[in-house]
Every structure is written in structure tokens, then in C-alpha cells.
Amino acid sequence: xxxxxxxxxxxxxxxxxxxxxxxxxxxxxxxxxxxxxxxxxxxxxxxxxxxxxxxxxxxxxxxxxxxxxxxxxxxxxxxxxxxxxxxxxxxxxxxxxxxxxxxxxxxxxxxxxxxxxxxxxxxxxxxxxxxxxxxxxxxxxxxxxxxxxxxxxxxxxxxxxxxxxxxxxxxxxxxxxxxxxxxxxxxxxxxxxxxxxxxxxxxxxxxxxxxxxxxxxxxxxxx
Length: 223
Ligand code: SF4
Ligand code: SF4
Prior knowledge:
By secondary structure, the protein is an alpha+beta fold. It is about 20% helix and about 15% strand. It has a domain at about 45-145: Alpha-Beta Plaits. The protein has helices at about 5-30, 70-75, 115-120, 215-220; strands at about 55, 80-90, 95-105, 125, 140-145. The relative contact order is 0.12.
């Protein structure tokens, strides 16, 4: 190595070092974008569309909208959902199939969202709760209807419409007066307009064309 090459490589190294320090210095004062999890758990912002785990939607009174139709179970591509049903007796003496247990295996879910999309009553949704790690796989099998099942009271059948108005009064006992013996004089019928008179007799046939007789005088001259 010549002395020129030595100093050239030395300056190249120094230049590279200064470039690297420049990038480091710039990032030192730039606002940080990394999340300091779990220290920032309370202020962590997770996208609403993030699919963490399937869950039931309960209203304020503790009712859910699942009608146990099993549509989600049939549409799940890997058997993650199991809808267990039971028959109950209603107040009106009829029987009804209702949900008993809604089992969901988070360990096999692929978060494809097909179950949510095909539910006819919008009874389920995905929560964006991402902290789902556990130590035992069995814990990942969850019963989503965790509240006691409540059956909404069956609405009373609609009352029948009031009876129709009373039948029309019976025929009057007294028959209407008998027809008069003599029929009233009929109104003179308005004379029908006489048919248009036939056109007068057809015009006489045109006289046959006859040869006009030659004047006599002419005939005599010719003689
Ligand atoms: S998200 Fe997909 S895989 Fe998971 S339970 Fe629903 S249908 Fe099944
Ligand atoms: S969650 Fe929806 S699709 Fe599944 S059984 Fe209930 S009503 Fe049917």
C-alpha cells in the first residue's frame, strides 16, 4: 500500500463515520413512533378493524341476538365454532329451539370474518383486544354466551278483530203492496225515428242512344 492509498482509505472511513453519526443524531431528536408496550397499555391505540377475538354482542338488558341458526358454524372453514342448542317450552305452550352454548376455539380461528358476515342477526363481532396469549391451549376454547340465557317474553297474540256488524235486518213482515191490478199506463214510447226514406226510385235507365235521324232536306238534295 502506498502512502497515497493509505490516506485515501483513511478519509473514506472518516467520511463514512460522519455520515453514520449524522443519521444517528437526526433520529435522536426525531419524534419516536415505536410503542413502549406494555408500559403504555392504558393509552395504547388499536385499530378498530383489528380482529383479536370473536365475541357476542349483548345489549344493556343482557340479551343477545343469536337465534341459534348455525349459519356461522356451517360457514366456518375450519370448524372453529360449535353451536349447541336445546328445546324449551314457551308460555304459549309451543316449543322453541334456543342457544345453549356457543363454543369458539380461538386457537384454530383464522380471523377470516366469514362467521360475522354470514350471521343474519348481527349477533357476533370481532373485538380488537389483542392480548390473547395464554399458557394452556384449553383456555383458548371459550364459551361466548357467558351471561345466563334469557328468553324474551313471547308477545301476546294479536286480538281478533271485533265481530262484524249485526246481520242486515230480516225481511219486513209486510210484503210491499201488491202490484196494482191495472198496470199504469205506460208512457208512450217515443216514436222511433222513421228510417230514412229509401231514395226515390232509381233513375230511369238512360235512354238508349239512338242514331239521330238525318234531316229530310239533306236527303232530298242528295237525291
Ligand atoms: S373468523 Fe373464520 S375461522 Fe374464525 S370462527 Fe369465524 S369463520 Fe371460523
Ligand atoms: S351467531 Fe348468528 S349465525 Fe351464528 S347461530 Fe347465532 S344467529 Fe346464527
